[in-house]
Write a structure and sequence with these properties.
The chain starts with 9 loop residues before the first strand and ends in a 25-residue tail after the last helix. It has a five-stranded parallel beta sheet, sandwiched between helices. The protein has a two-stranded antiparallel sheet with strand order 3-4. With 229 residues, it is an alpha/beta fold. α1 (22-29) runs parallel beside α6 and α4 packs across α5. The chain is globular, with a radius of gyration of 17 Å. The protein contains six helices and nine strands, in the order βαβββαβββαβααβα.
Length: 229
């Protein structure tokens, strides 16, 4: 079935455990990207879930899925959108920025909650593909800890408690992401796949939905716990 007046741009969702290399994959792909982490709720929100003695930023309830979806729909239709900027170390929005992708037919939406957007993006005809980075748990633990220490995200005891917890959850999280419809790929293969999709899109002038994730119907909603960063 053909969608009337289809948009010129579509979204590739990129999820994965915190510290798994989503940002690196995005940079290597050469595609424009929207950082889904910028749609976290403010840290002083009394409704935030809690874990590890702090607000549970790995729970989808800590994130504004509807605002992220609206931004992506605007970006696909218009090629530009104003989005918040969020400081993870401050757990607060610090301003806003304008993202302009011009006539690029693909944009990556990167973040641990990317799978939350599979259904609504597919229903709107805006989903091109969905990928989740699948990397060894100990490697992800080490990469996440080094990054969080370098960026002074949280106190060291909190980072260690959270890191061990996320390591224990990683296999279950991967199963949930795959059930939601994301394709598990290693870092290098994910980069190659994104570049391949970009070439297809450039040759075609626009990109059609290239895969068929399992969960296509419904509204914005949680698939369960995800992981931040």
């Amino acid at each position: 079935m053909t969608t009337p007046n289809p948009p010129a741009r579509r979204v590739v969702l990129l999820a994965g455990p915190s510290g798994s290399g989503k940002g690196e994959v995005t940079r290597r792909s050469g595609l424009p990207a929207l950082a889904l982490d910028d749609f976290y709720r403010e840290g002083d929100d009394p409704a935030l879930p809690r874990r590890f003695g702090i607000a549970d930023w790995d729970d989808p309830a800590s994130w504004d899925a509807q605002a992220a979806l609206t931004a992506l729909e605007t970006l696909c239709r218009r090629g530009r959108v104003t989005v918040p900027t969020y400081s993870i170390s401050l757990s607060a929005r610090t301003g806003q920025t304008r993202l302009d992708i011009g006539d690029a037919p693909l944009v990556i939406a990167e973040g641990i909650f990317a799978a939350e957007l599979i259904r609504p993006l597919a229903a709107a005809g805006l989903l091109a593909d969905g990928i989740v980075l699948d990397r060894p748990g100990p490697l992800v633990f080490a990469m996440r800890l080094v990054r969080d220490l370098r960026q002074s995200r949280k106190p060291v005891p909190v980072l260690l408690r959270r890191g061990w917890g996320l390591l224990g959850d990683q296999r279950a999280d991967m199963r949930a992401w795959v059930r939601a419809g994301l394709r598990p790929l290693g870092l290098h293969r994910a980069v190659r796949e994104l570049r391949r999709l970009a070439l297809i899109a450039a040759a075609d002038g626009r990109v059609h939905q290239l895969t068929a994730p399992a969960a296509h119907r419904g509204q914005v909603g949680s698939i369960g716990r995800s992981r931040r960063g």
